[in-house]
Amino acid sequence: MNVGIVCYASVGGSGIVATELAKALAMRGHDVHLLSTEPPFRYADYQPGLSFHRVHTPAYPLFREPQYVLSLANKIVQVTRSFSLDIIHAHYAVPHATAAYLARQILSTSVPPARIPRVVTTLHGTDITLVGSDRSYSETVAFSIERSDGVTAVSESLRADTYRALQVERDIRVIPNFLDCRVHRRTSHPTLRQRYARTPAEKLVIHVSNFRPVKRVEAVVQVFARIAASVPARLLLIGDGPDLGKALETAHSMGIGDDVESLGEQDQILPLLSIADLFLLTSQQESFGLAALEAMAAGVPVVASDVGGLREVVDHGRSGYLHALNDLDGMAASGVSLLRDPALHARTAAEASRTVQERFCAELVVPRYEAFYGELVAAAKPGGAPVE
After folding, report:
1. Which of 54, 76, 191, 257 is at 20 to 30 A from 229, Cα to Cα?
2. Helix axes 328-340, 217-228, angle to 10 degrees
3. What is the C-alpha separation between 262 and 127, in angstroms, rounded?
4. For residue 192, what are the CA distances in angstroms to 4, 204, 274?
5. How many domains does the chain have?
6. pLDDT of residue 388
């Protein structure tokens, strides 16, 4: 099958999942074309069956801002004509599904209906919880979802949020995020651990995000401060974004500046997760929680706010701990319990890893996308013959 995948190149769950899906599909024998403004985060090295197509958006004095939707739609048309795409998989309803709809309308003027690619839209969260709920965009978001041939959401929580926020009527299939479990597992890095743990007894607490307001990174620091008051520990902040400065300022104001270290954006976080003892995630909203899933795969117990799709990933009291959004004391207490009790930590870490292996590995999830693609393409073919 020939598949075009459209995503953002910036650091974030949607781009990571889209890129990993592209890699997995190519490895399974499909021809995959990744469309974005630049090679996506974690695109990595050459892989047979996977190609990248850059979307150029020229700026003209007449236009007040770059016309990304127009240039993306144009690129989708060009790639479809050149490579006979069967599927356009748009990650985010707007602007990507919107551009895919426009591309289909353009193609309909010159391509037989059976050769117009099917559009699959995957909802990741921000396109619904932030953009979709804004009345300036809501009609366009809803239209783009309704006009897609197939729609998926990364969690039951996001599916419910979509119906509630936009009153769309079409079916939305839940297909969760996933990891390549051959790669995402805990590995030994004793030298790296010695670099960050100042003593053998010191525990390493980690937070990974894009440091946007929804991640509430100041709350991460506040929870860590409570933990550090009971257990020798350091906090490693991985990533960058508008609230990183606030998090560091909070640490200094609380007198724990020397216990908090910012490592910036990292392309490969598995070695850092592999030396961590605890993962903190205090987000206001998480439609899935990919960072938590990556931590669990590396055997790192997660303590997080009980919001959105996180309860579909973390089983409270078994693979991690979930607390009410503002229950910072509760989060800290769970963190202290895990770090003080080796047996509890080992059980929780093992359960976290087992959860990923049993439910969220690529070999379990990617075939669900393949089957969905096949259904949509077969429905458009004369006689409904499936496409390999």
Report:
1. 191
2. 50
3. 29
4. 39, 12, 10
5. 2
6. 45
Q: Are 68 and 55 in contact (CB under 8 A)?
A: yes
Check whether residue 150 and residue 246 sit in a common domain. no
- Beta-carbon-side half-sphere exposure of residue 78 (alpha carbons within 13 Å): 11
Which residue carries 């609380």 as its tokens?
Answer: 254
Q: Residue 117's closest CA among 100, 133, 134?
A: 100
Query: Is residue 293 classed as helix, strand or coil in its secondary structure?
Result: helix
Q: What is the pLDDT of residues 52-84, one digit of tens each?
A: 999 998 877 666 666 889 999 999 999 999 999
User: Cβ distance 79 to 33 under 8 Å?
Assistant: yes
- By the 10 Å C-beta count (0-12 exposed, 13-18 middle, 19+ buried), 133 is classed as middle
User: 119 with 90: CB under 8 angstroms?
Assistant: yes
| Shared-domain flag, residues 60 and 195 | no
Q: What is the CATH number of the domain that holds 194?
A: 3.40.50.2000
User: Which pLDDT tens digit goes with each residue over 116-155?
Assistant: 999 999 999 876 766 556 677 788 889 999 999 999 999 9
Q: Are 285 and 129 spatial neighbours (Cβ–Cβ below 8 Å)?
A: yes
Percent of the chain having pLDDT more than 90? 80
Mean pLDDT along residues 231-239: 98
Among candidate residues 93, 128, 127, the one with its CA nearest the CA of residue 6: 93
**Do both 209 and 256 map to the same domain?**
yes
CB 307 within 8 A of CB 286: yes
Chain centre distance of CA 323: 22
Structural domain range at position 265: 190-359
Residue 65's pLDDT is: 62
In this structure, what token pair is assigned to residue 107? 């193609």
Beta-bridge partner residues of 6: 35, 90
